[in-house]
Design a protein that fits this description.
elongated, two-stranded antiparallel ribbon
Amino acid sequence: MLHPKIANLSATRHILKTFNLRASKRLGQNFLIDSAVVDGIVEAAEISEGDNVLEIGPGIGTLTQGLLEAGANVTAVELDKKLPAVLAQTLEGYENFKLVQGDILKVDLEELMPQNFKVVANLPYYITTQILLTLMERKLPVTKIVTMVQKEVAERMIAAPNSKAYGAMTVAVQFRADVRIAFDVPPESFIPRPEVTSSVVVCDIRETPFKVDETFFTKVVRAAFGQRRKTLLNSLIGAGFQREAVTKALEVAGIEPARRAETLTLEEFSRLAISF
């Protein structure tokens, strides 16, 4: 069956007009119209025949089609109740496609994706961080996450210590994955055009080399960055840790109490969490 390509302006406009659709600002929708971007995302995800892929927010099926054509078995979760009827037509005939209507933060992903899988998504900007961290923290059999995010968020994800972009989210993501930016995507690759440039980020999930309780590690990191202008000692005390415990942990970890959170490496944060 010959499937016309969705990833272009005329096809997208035709679909939107046919189904009387408009991008939902509430859901952060922007429709991708650049086939080169679709190809780039599929390449960045290193899709092979038979790969299991979870797509979040398939929209009208633009990126989904690229994944399906590459041979992936795609399970897509879509929040917008209007779109399943659209996808039934735009992706008609693809036997390697399954759609679940629902909220990705509420769907039972353990049951839905029991075997190793990759995540590929064009995430709504307003909920990017929450979705990414949820996927990483739930101990799912995810091997790779390839997602389009706001460029500013991408820069936070790959940031190094001693930079303004380096923060709690940086540490949380890098604790669980090797992260890189594959390429940037300009506003004109979408309709309607977003006001910012996007970036495609690749997260290769790995076993953390640090033997530390992840829940407590996260608590320490968030506390440390809670008041960026304060010293590490004062930030942790201000977040509710006992002064004596903080002082001892910093000493055991070999970290000066006067340092600030943004100067600590991932290894130092792990050492600190273990030292409590």
